[in-house]
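Troubleshooting: if your tokenizer reports a length mismatch, compare against these two reference records.
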Amino acid sequence: MSRFPEGFLWGGATAANQCEGGYNEGGRGLANVDVIPHGKDRFAVMLGDKKMFDFDNEHYYPAQTGIDMYHHYKEDIALFGEMGFKTYRLSIAWTRIFPNGDEAEPNEEGLKFYEDLFKECHKHGIEPLVTITHFDCPMYLIEKYGGWKNRKLISLYENLCNVIFRRYKGLVKYWLTFNEINMILHLPFMGAGLYFEEGENKEQAMYTAAHHELVASALATKIAHEVDPNNMVGCMLAAGETYPYSCNPKDVWKAAEANRDNYFFIDVQSRGAYPAYALLDLERKGIKIPFEDGDKEVLKKYTVDFISFSYYSSRCASADPKMETAGNVFASVKNPHLQASEWGWQIDPLGLRITLNNLYDRYQKPLFIVENGLGAKDTPDADGYVEDDYRIDYLREHVKAMGDAVELDGVELLGYTMWGCIDLVSASTGEMSKRYGFIYVDRDDEGNGTLKRSKKKSFDWYKKVIATNGEELD
């Protein structure tokens, strides 16, 4: 007997803006994720502090080409099929379907591209798991409306959902509304197309945008179920438990506050209402949630069917501000009991089990791990082969922890899609050298390389894991 249920959805995950490329092909329009450069200005642009609404000659923009999956998707999906993937999580580029975001009619060439891609998945026995918005926001909507801080985007997103749910009925069953919705508060331009003018109330803008996305997510769930009752719609958060640095009650409370803040959006999407603690906190800060007639009813009635999340590391919190160190997006305190990756992410397999239990206890809905993996520098041989035992070790321990949560704790888990199953551009740093994949792609941080695909050692390891439904991990 396997620890994992029959039909467990093993697979891998990517995002259009990190792998697809073809930014100016097939009638596609320009998106916020296209104009985020590699290099020193990347974080300032992602934060909405530096205005970059188009390309310039001084920066390299990795999303323009990604790994050119736009032209290689059949080859890539065949490799996923060879590994035995049951599901493949990918995202739709909004600007392929509506180049500006507000057209009356969709772009047929973009619709056909994804239809062909989904059919290619089914040819290999792979169920697509589709993120509707993985940080993508049309630049036209940012320039014209100010991104998600404008309520107009709700109806435009509804229109996108109506089109794709109808067009892909029968081809796609599993949907995610917004990738890592909580990233609005951490990287607002990347997360919601927010650029801040001088003197603007940033927090008010971020929570306004968040409210609009939450209403849009509920409406997407409504439309999905109306179009096809078999559709399952999930939310998605950047997860990872925050531990107290010590048993000092002040540290415990600091960690509790951090966890609560992280779950805030999912509380709304899964429970159907803003939690009391959040409303009181926002009121104290003078931030107004822009409720309009019907919003509360929509949020309450159309909650998600399952909770999906990314998990890379846990975090640590101390009430002593001197303890805090800068992290990748999330500031944290170094946990003395854990090792870290080359990029400083604390490696904590047991933390995945803890996160699974806390999410399941909190929401009592099925869970789906849609991102987990190790970013590392790989050194290929002349044939492109990488002996990535360090990646296998990382994944093995996380799969074991996941199995414990299912078998020993009774967590209802739908599936697991390892992040960056094929090497792609890092969302946080814009690097290719921060590699996650089972498949090596010959591409460097400056965009040089042949784009040749080759299997790493972990390719055959994961193939065996899937074939045995998680039983053989050595």
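Reference record two:
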Amino acid sequence: MKTAYALAIAALFALPAAAQETRSFTDDLGRTVEIPLEAQRIASLQDLAITVPLIELGVMPIASHGRTTPEGEGFIRGSKVLTGVDFDNSDIEFLGNLPVDIEAVAAAEPDLIITTPWQTAPVEQLEAIAPVIVLDDEARGDFEIYDVLAEITGTQDRLAVLKDRYAGQVEQIRRLIDTVDISVNVIQGVDGQVLSWHTYGALGKLLRDAGFTFPERVEAIPEGQFERMSPETLPELDADFLFVTYRTDTGETPADAFAHLEAVMPNFCEFLFACTSNQMIVMPREEASASSYYGLGVLSYTVLSHISGRQFEHKPE
């Protein structure tokens, strides 16, 4: 049911919105929506998938979904380290988490709302406020979402610069590291199981684009998917270099990354060549997983600094 407040706000601002020049857009639910030709007040309802990419494209949303600290303070996950922008140093309004606060969305007076299937705020309620586009970031992929956001916001030139910079970073890695002769993987301990991905976010994209190889067990995972595995699979996930992440936004440290793997198997390091050879690289999850071209740059430098020019051992066959 639409709240009375949301309906009242929608009615109040219906005439200015209607006066805008519009165009038709078909979203990832197959809905054809009339959206502003040049949206000025975008509300983003997913921080990592929508808000961070918009900011990197040079588009500042007027309001955003976010997370909350234990003290109840809102923050845009990963944005402070990826873009430098957060609720506390910008005019972006905090809309709540999952679901966002419909009344807060209405009070922000957006002329366009961009959401994802992950966000549980009902589309029919949001439609009473402003045109709503639903973009499926999981189906499109972490970085393909940039293409549609750039098309919606007219920032294709900015995206072209970001892509060119990333292409240069990948070329630099390929020039300085014999990637095809080095195996890599990303693992994570969660609730006593080990997780591994076909392609783990930005880090996985970089490693694959740069030409590194992955264990056969990982190649068997369908593209875009991950698997939860038992402790016995740890040796199958091993590689010359292993990457492990931890969540800085929840206060985790590298020690937590190791503790999660210890919960999978005590003395786990003894079963992994990369760990016993000091070739396991631990890094913050925000830079490793987020849809961010800045994050890709950080990861490129990390890979270069840890692997290029280094004497290391290959995992025995």
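Descriptive notes for reference record two:
- Confidence is low (pLDDT under 50) at residues 12-18.
- Residues 4-157 form a domain with the Rossmann fold fold (CATH 3.40.50.1980).
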